[in-house]
Prior knowledge:
The protein is of the alpha+beta class. It has three domains: 2-80; 92-166, SH3 type barrels; 172-266, Alpha-Beta Plaits, CATH 3.30.70.100. 49% of the residues lie in helices and 20% in strands. The chain has helices at residues 2-37, 41-67, 72-80, 82-88, 90-105, 156-159, 186-200, 209-218, 251-266; strands spanning 113-116, 119-126, 130-136, 145-153, 162-164, 172-181, 228-234, 237-246. β3 and β4 (145-153) form a beta hairpin. α1 packs antiparallel against α2 and α7 crosses α9.
Amino acid sequence: MKDFEFSDGIIQFIYLAFFIFVLFLIRNFIVRYLKHRIHDLKEYRIYKIYINYFFVFFILLFVIPPLLPKLKELVTVLSIFGAGILLIFKEVILNMYGFFYLIIRRPFVIGDRIKINDFYGDVLDIRLLDFTMLQLYPLYLGGQSSGRVVNIPNSYVFLYPLSNFSKEFAFNWLEIKIPLTINSDIEKAEELILKIINKLLRPIEEESEKIKISYEKYAIYFQKIQPRTYIEYNKGSVIVSLRFLCEPKEQRNIKDLFWREFLKVIKKQKNIQLETSYENLYDF
């Protein structure tokens, strides 16, 4: 009788595996259908990940539970080897657990710009065992795409600190340091710097939706969100530090446009001179 029950459990397990395989084929058919119907690549990726979520939850909630009583004999046998299985597949199990953490806790979603361990980039896809990023160069090298796609195990969300540059607040503080000679007209330089940056940036109001979300959800509040300047003296140079809020994906462009405009303007100003001997030791 025991042999018969065990064989029956094996048969149920085979049926389960076959049914999951059929669901996988259905999922692939739907994904291919959407690929031909949806022309926006970002929208297609979002639909694709939601379809993956649906099928995983469907299997966990509706397919496996009814079969568990019939598979208890098989589970009993497998439990004998449980310790070995956990040791061999611990990375796989941790990656799967990381997947559920990502879709429930949502520390980042597709399209977010994140940094985890030494990897910095934009999230392209989230799968059962890993997520994919378009790698970017570090911020001090411009923060633009390297053209490399990196697959990162989901377990990294438990092993390393995660920085999200695009979450609800969606703005980062950016600083540009402008070194001037001690004889420069500092007040005039500040006036020109603020005029240029205010022309380049889109206005951010304290009542904007992103600012409200950051305050309500994370208690992030800044007394002043408009661009401002700070003055410091360093080894014979007067350093004007321009600090402003900027969307992560616009940082390189804003820096480029600012310096183009500023260098053009100070050519006409005899009383404002850049200090060429200053070395910026900070990475922003």
